[in-house]
Amino acid sequence: MSARTKVVVAGAIVTFRSKPAGFEFQLSELFAATSWSAIRVGVRRSAGTAFLKWAYQHPEEIECLGKDDENHQHYRKIC
User: pLDDT above 70 covers what percent of the chain?
Assistant: First the structure.
C-alpha cells in the first residue's frame, strides 16, 4: 500500500469515527467532493480495498452492506 493510500484511509477512518451511529455511506462520501476527485483513480481504488479490509477487521464499529449497481461498497456505522 502506498503512502498516499495510507493517508487517504487514515483520513477516512477519522471522518468515519466522527459520524453518528446508523450513518450509511460509501467511502467517497467521507471526503469533500473536490478532494475525492483530486485523488488519483488508482489511489482511490487502493484506498477502497484497504478501507474494506479495515472494516472487516472492525465489525464492532462498522457493517459492510454490500455493493450497489455501480460496484461501490456501502457501509453503516454501528457505534
Answer: 100
